[in-house]
Amino acid sequence: MNRFYIEKLVVSGGGHESSVIDFHPGFNLVTGPSNTGKSLVMDCIDYAFGFTPKENHPSKIVDNNNGYEKITLYLRTANGTVILERKIGENKISVSGSDSSIEHDLYSLGNNAKKSINTVFLQLIGIDGDHKVLSSEKGATQKLTWRSMLHLFFIRQADVARETSALMAPGGMGKTASPAVLLYLLTGRDANNLEKPEDPEISKAKRKALTVYIRDKANRLTSRREELEEMLSAGGDTDVRAVIDNIQKEIAAIQTQLDAASKESQQLMSEIYEQNGKLSECNTVVHNFSVLHRQYQSDIKRLGFIVDGGVGMPAASVKRHCPFCDSEIETKPTPQYISASAAELNKIKVHLSELGEAQQSIDRQQQAVVETIKALETRKAQVDSLISDDLQPRLSSFKQKLESKLQFLRLSSELDVVKQDETQYKSELFEKETEEEPENPKYNIFGYYDYDLVHGFETKLIEVLKESHIGGATTARLNMKNFDIEIGGLKKAVSSGGGFCGILNTITAYSMSGYIIEQDGKAPGFFAVDSALTQLSEAEHIQQSDTIKRNFVQYLLNHANERQVIMVEQKKRMPFIPQESENGEIHVIEFSKEKDTGRYGFLNDVYNPEDQ
């Protein structure tokens, strides 16, 4: 991207020794007492940049040239040097130098001249050809010129503390032209790249269609309102909310009963399960008793048979044969087992009697469990019947009543909304029907700035304000109505005096010119300001190390490697005089106003009367 900075200023001729000031690419401070030619340095640069003196806006170098005849300004570009020479009092500028991309010739100040110096300045920042920018809301255009954008990079003493926006060119450019120029520098969009306002006939057709739409919406809302009013009229004057409260109380009471009944039913079911378990145990015992009884009966029959058989046997010995040797042996009767069997028989009969008693006991328990189960089942049936036949139907009935009343309330709420919307649409319909017909299309230049573009500048602005310790910095924004910054919601002219306006204007222009460079827009590589700090007085209780002046100057020093800054300031207004740096980033040009010490002033051989 094309950038240039100021390398040297020379005022010469008239028999004087040439007055020369060398500038460095970084931070340059021109300082000294009053009446030493500090502002004349800016005036000479401005003159070389094509300033045309006017009766209400004179030029110091023209009116007080002290015999000097010519101003020469050396510009450094990426391709070499461009030298601008202008004789004092003439309207032509000679262009030469080592940059072969710039045509060497004699140029006129007139923007419409065949050889206009305007084309050279625009070419130096990468703008080729003629470009038109908007100059009025009606769509009038004007030529893009160097002088229409210079206020963003070059602030003269007379303009630094103005209450109007630093982004607007001082003078009579109007509120459209300056924002249009800045839009071009940021985005490259000139008058040919801006969407034209809508044709009046199209606007009229859209307005008619919108009127029809609004009227249709209003009619629909009216119909719906009448429908709702008819539906709600059936409700009479009953206090619906009171009825709803009573219904909700009934529902709550029934729900409490229903919960209690359900809980009781569940408890009864658990008890029935428990009793069924006991009944199952009784049945098992009864079955086991039955099996044992049958076993006892069998044992009694067997033992009785043994006893009866033993009683009928003879008492004499019986002869038998040995199963091994087949010899005859004699066996005597053994009546002991008969008495044992009889004793066992008696014992079993006793057990059988006890079993009968146990059988009777378990039968009684079984009967009691059966009766308990029947009672529980009867009670559960009653509870379940209460739930299904009484409580649930009643609850359902009250819920239906509640829903009906709630629907009534919803319709009432809808009616309120419909009435509001109906009133709103009828109001809009009235406005559209009484609106004046559009005649001529109007351009709103601020409407072509998108939020991201503006927000990016605000971010840059806030950074500089914060580093300068200006109160409320984080609230700073660009007001798109007056195209000026505001802090804490207050306009600059309302909340700030002249001194504060001066430093705010400086920071605003400095931030915007830097932002253009960050956006790869069209801008030179220098920023110059005269007397940014002169009018700013800060409270005595603020420590010298924490003043706005000190912090702002320190910010410029910290960013000296980013682009050239030329600051012209009275020495007594400076918070400190920075040290000259070896790498050239910081350069101090100081006038002493003393003939025998240092450099008296800007112009050689020119002294104030008191110092002659």
Give the CATH level 1 class of the largest domain: Alpha Beta
Shape: elongated
The overall average pLDDT, rounded, is 87
Rg is 56 Å
The run of helices and strands is: EEEHHEEEEHEEEHHHHEEHHEEEHHEHEE
Low-confidence stretches: none
CATH architecture of the largest domain: 3-Layer(aba) Sandwich
The structural class is alpha+beta
List the strand order in the largest sheet: 2-1-4-5-6-7
Count of helical stretches: 12
The CATH fourth-level homologous superfamily of the largest domain:
P-loop containing nucleotide triphosphate hydrolases
Distance between the termini: 49 Å
Q: How many domain units?
A: 2
Structure in words:
- With 612 residues, the chain is of the alpha+beta class.
- It folds into two domains: 5-197 and 444-611, P-loop containing nucleotide triphosphate hydrolases (Rossmann fold, 3-Layer(aba) Sandwich); 252-388, Helix Hairpins.
- 49% of the residues lie in helices and 15% in strands.
- It has twelve helices and 18 strands.
- It has helices at residues 38-48, 60-63, 117-124, 157-160, 174-187, 200-233, 240-311, 336-434, 451-467, 492-495, 498-518, 548-558, and strands at residues 5-13, 16-22, 27-32, 70-77, 80-87, 92-97, 105-108, 132-134, 141-143, 154-155, 318-321, 328-331, 477-479, 484-487, 490-491, 526-530, 564-570, 586-590.
- It has a six-stranded antiparallel beta sheet, with helices on one face. Strands 10-16-17-3-18 form a five-stranded parallel beta sheet, sandwiched between helices.
- α6 packs across α8 (336-434) and α9 (451-467) crosses α11.
- The longest helix is centred in the middle third of the chain and has 99 residues, at 336-434.
- It is elongated and about 185 Å long.
- The two termini are 49 Å apart.
- The mean pLDDT is 87.
